[in-house]
Inverse folding.
């Protein structure tokens, strides 16, 4: 049931007069975007007690919660995967979602499977594009969300400004990953950036993250109190059956691995922060003692050529495989025997959760929340120092040498995933947060929501 707001500025006027660099690409029609009302309702049933004592079922209309997610670009990355899981999984009878990409890069748009999600790009130029905040405000005025959620430094200031101009009631800012720690070089520009970040965060209604380590790093970066951050861990859905053995063998054969070989694998963007060059060195050391080990990396990125050259020069292409980006990472995970994360900086790794859901034993570097995910009384893997190829090679050899060890660690990984990191758990937490904010009952500062 829909109502039109009296006196509202007609959206078609915005569509005709928008800047030429603004593009609206929607999984619904542009007509729906321009003519949708701000008063969409979702309906639930409750039991009501009448004055005469009889009980009847009544419909209760509650405003549809409109949420716009702002990202720098909808590219292959952890932020985008998280946003896709949220918009795909939220109850469409309660939540109406849109994604606003500051740049025109929508290379990961295939992750969006919810046909009601609207996608908007703003044509942001490289570097500082002051006009993008104005264009963002115009889009927010048209979409009329109740909540806008920005992600990381690349969208924070723009969303703070646009939210004020457009009059969006609630602003959530989500920080993930490295909080700029690996690319904010010392200097006066970085000092100014830290001050601006702190001032901008003071204006948002909720600051949240997916990892305790990120909340701590944000405090160290700009002085924003860790205790004020809401932490909602990542969650995902993966088919947790053993899969098809024939499919596993087929995938392994594409890299020349036999059924009885040990396939060590990793998933991630080919970026210096992921430490894949160190992983290649560790595998080379391991091959001096074991000839049955293969290493496969699923992902693409700016280090592709550099890593490929390293593999060629080291003459290890027969057992180190850079297979590029694949949408179906689950198939590759099921072909692995051991999962490694070699990052030198991390928040809460979604690829670790994906490997955990498959039941893979893990070897991870002690950065971000990796040790929290893998360690503990019933560990599901080994934690090694970052940038230490010798220790990594030893850990790989120790896990590869024992089927029993791999099976025990794998069972622990699967159990931990099912208890803590399913998509339903994550979506329940986000639904509670968004619903509470819409109702004006925002949660107070807490460690985990």
């Amino acid at each position: 049931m829909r109502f039109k707001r009296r006196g509202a500025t007609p959206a078609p006027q915005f569509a005709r007069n928008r800047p030429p660099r603004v593009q609206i690409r929607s999984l619904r029609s542009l007509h729906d975007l321009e003519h949708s009302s701000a008063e969409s309702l979702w309906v639930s049933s409750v039991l009501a007690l009448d004055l005469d004592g009889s009980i009847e079922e009544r419909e209760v209309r509650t405003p549809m919660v409109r949420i716009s997610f702002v990202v720098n670009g909808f590219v292959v990355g952890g932020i985008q995967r998280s946003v896709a899981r949220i918009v795909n999984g939220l109850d469409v009878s309660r939540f109406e979602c849109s994604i606003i990409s500051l740049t025109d890069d929508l290379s990961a748009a295939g992750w969006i499977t919810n046909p009601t999600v609207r996608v908007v790009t703003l044509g942001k130029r490289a570097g500082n594009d002051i006009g993008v905040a104005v264009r963002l405000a115009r889009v927010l005025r048209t979409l009329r969300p109740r909540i806008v959620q920005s992600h990381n430094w690349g969208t924070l200031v723009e969303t703070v400004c646009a939210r004020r101009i457009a009059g969006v009631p609630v602003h959530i800012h989500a920080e993930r990953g490295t909080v700029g720690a690996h690319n904010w070089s010392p200097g006066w520009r970085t000092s100014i950036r830290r001050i601006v970040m702190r001032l901008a965060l003071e204006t948002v209604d909720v600051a949240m993250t997916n990892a305790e380590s990120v909340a701590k790093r944000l405090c160290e970066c700009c002085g924003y109190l860790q205790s004020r951050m809401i932490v909602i861990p990542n969650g995902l859905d993966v088919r947790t059956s053993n899969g098809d053995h024939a499919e596993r063998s087929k995938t392994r054969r594409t890299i020349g691995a036999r059924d009885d070989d040990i396939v060590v694998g990793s998933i991630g963007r080919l970026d210096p922060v992921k430490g894949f060059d160190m992983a290649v060195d560790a595998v080379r050391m391991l091959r001096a003692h074991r000839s049955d080990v293969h290493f496969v990396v699923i992902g693409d990125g700016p280090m592709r050529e550099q890593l490929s050259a390293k593999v060629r020069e080291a003459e290890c292409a027969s057992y180190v495989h850079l297979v590029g980006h694949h949408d179906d990472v689950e198939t590759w995970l099921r072909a692995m025997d051991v999962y490694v994360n070699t990052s030198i900086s991390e928040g809460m790794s979604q690829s670790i959760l994906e490997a955990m859901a498959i039941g893979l034993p893990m070897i991870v570097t002690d950065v971000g929340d990796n040790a929290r995910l893998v360690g503990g009384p019933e560990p599901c893997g080994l934690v090694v120092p970052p940038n230490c190829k010798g220790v990594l090679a030893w850990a790989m050899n120790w896990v590869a040498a024992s089927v029993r060890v791999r099976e025990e660690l794998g069972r622990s990984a699967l159990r931990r995933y099912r208890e803590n990191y399913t998509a339903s758990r994550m979506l329940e937490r986000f639904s509670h947060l968004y619903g509470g904010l819409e109702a004006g009952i925002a949660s107070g500062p807490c460690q985990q929501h």
User: Anything to note?
Assistant: The chain has two domains: 11-236+424-438, 245-421.
